[in-house]
Amino acid sequence: MTKPYAIGIDLGGTNLRAALVSRDFEVVKKLKEPSSGLAAGGDVIRLMKAAIDELMSPEVEGIGIGVAGVLERGESRITISPNIPPLNGYSFNDLAYPVPVYVENDANSAALGEARAGAGRNFKNFVLMTLGTGIGGGIIYGGELLKVAAEVGHMSIAADGKKCFCGNNGCLEIFASARAIIAAVVEALEGGAESILRECCQGKIYRITPEDVYKAAFGEGDILSREVLKEAGRYLGVGIANIINIMSPEAVILAGGLVGSWNIYVDEAIKEASKRSFKSLFQGVSIIPASLGDEAGAVGAASLVFNEGK
Ligand SMILES: [Zn+2]
Known about the structure:
alpha/beta
């Protein structure tokens, strides 16, 4: 007998989100706990177990976990988690629960969430890009999650570009993420550039957030902020063009904090992607925002349970 609910966990470097999700992908109950600053792997796992215990009931079919990092799928092991280093090498097979546990990468889980209950519902083939501190990705092909790394943020864009956190040079993420936008703003201010951002954060330029940059760009028409967002958007467009030329998806769905800056950053990305991708492929693709917001990862993780149970 199939049970009506699944628990979905979205374990990111900043927050742990957990949700009790019904078979029609409705979030019945949800929890959020900060996960940043947890020193040991055991602490992260304890936090996750506490959330699972709170949502667990005899009505739960299984647990899906979306986690930031690269997976060794057969072993449910995290090979490397740049944003949650304590989980490097951890195997989720060590969790002892009376129900099945499925593990996926967090951006892959978010793609599955958008496919089942969000902006991806009407597409059989799409690529989700999560645009935040870093850049992640997930691929839906033929209506199902493609169980591959899909690390779109680490596609090489510039052979001799700046060093990325992954150790490579010139990754998309180092040019187009929130971290990249802040680094570019700080570098320009240190170099003496004029900007209203100097008045931000009591003059402490290292505290400037991506939100401050959007506000300055939109509200104040700050030229530096607009230029930095445009430049990051241009690189994002290079990455999107690569995705379009390789995958010819029906849609590229954009999620994460930076999508709030659609009018400059994403507009520029679309313009650049249109110049660089094959015309016939570009004409067939919708570049649209995700619709589930912060819930996508947990809903998608829960969907792993229903998917496997089909
Ligand atoms: Zn990289």
